[in-house]
Amino acid sequence: MDPNSNLSPMDMMKIQANTLYTMDNQKRLLSINEPDGGQAPALFIGITSVGQCSYYHELLPFTLIEELGCDANLSLDIAKLIRRVETFKPVKSVWMGPAYAFPEKCGEWHPNVQLIESHRSFLLEEHFPDLIERVHEKMPVTAYVIEESAIAVCCSARISKQGAEASLYTSPNFRGQGYAAEAVKCWQYHVKESGRIPIYSASWDNMASQTVARKLGLIQFGVDLSITTTS
Predict the structure, then answer these.
(1) Under 8 Å between Cβ of 74 and 80
(2) Distance (Å, rounded) from C-alpha 2 to C-alpha 144?
(3) Which domains does the chain have, with CATH numbers?
(4) CB–CB of 1/99 below 8 Å?
(5) Between β-strands 113-115 and 142-146, what pairing exists: parallel, antiparallel or unpaired?
(6) So what's the pLDDT on residue 73?
(7) Does position 1 have pLDDT exceeding 60, yes or no?
(8) Among 174, 211, 198, 183, which residue's Cα sits nearest to residue 110?
(9) Which residues are 142's β-sheet partners?
(10) What are the N-acetyltransferase domain coordinates in residue numbering (predicted)?
(11) What is the number of other CB atoms lying within 10 angstroms of the CB of residue 166?
(12) Residue 195: in which H helix or E strand, if any?
């Protein structure tokens, strides 16, 4: 973790969980934390060097939660957790990957990177038209711009009072050239300026996203595991 930060890896993991999902007063998962909602996983486990925290869908039976809690406290056996969850409903997907915090300073971003506010959303038209109507939901939105066209974008996938989770897009013809990392530098700065903590995560099989994390010197604070069932 950042030596200048007072947040432990477990603190960061709890902030991330509350940024990714909406929860009830008992910390049961209600939905994905996006304007349109979406199905929350049956089980989310945040694993850190100092322990782990587990969150369960609001509809899971209490007896199943107890069983999953016992399983999660042992050495992590993902196959066993999946079998447990499938006593409730069939498992649709399993997601796992590293979660990162940002260092105190990420360095200056390239001059071509711009903050995209609503009046500048025309820069998204060529490569990211689907984002135009959602710019106000995903602020801050930053982009590497070439000839009045955004070719790499970083925005807030999910936002809470304490944190913001990064979402990264690069137009296929411009991948692998470092543009995305420059957009992320600018994004994390504006997230911090808003008083929130920027968070970055990637699945284990998303090597491009992990490469961005390495380029920026991000600090891994844990690993996320989510198991989602059919609705």
Answers:
(1) no
(2) 27
(3) 9-100+224-229 (no CATH), 113-217 (3.40.630.30)
(4) no
(5) antiparallel
(6) 77
(7) no
(8) 183
(9) 115, 154
(10) 142-218
(11) 25
(12) none
The amino acid present at 95, given as its one-letter code, is W
Q: Which two tokens stand for residue 75?
A: 């050495």
21-23/29-32 β-pairing: antiparallel
Q: 44-76: per-residue pLDDT in tens?
A: 999 999 999 999 999 999 999 999 988 887 678
Residue position matching structure tokens 């989510």? 226
Work out the number of other CB atoms within 10 angstroms of the CB of residue 197: 22
| Integer Cα distance of 228 and 221 in angstroms | 23
> What are the φ and ψ backbone dihedral angles of 119, each rounded to 5 degrees?
-75, -5
pLDDT digits (tens, 9 = 90+) for 101-156: 999 988 899 999 999 999 999 999 999 999 999 999 999 999 999 999 999 999 99
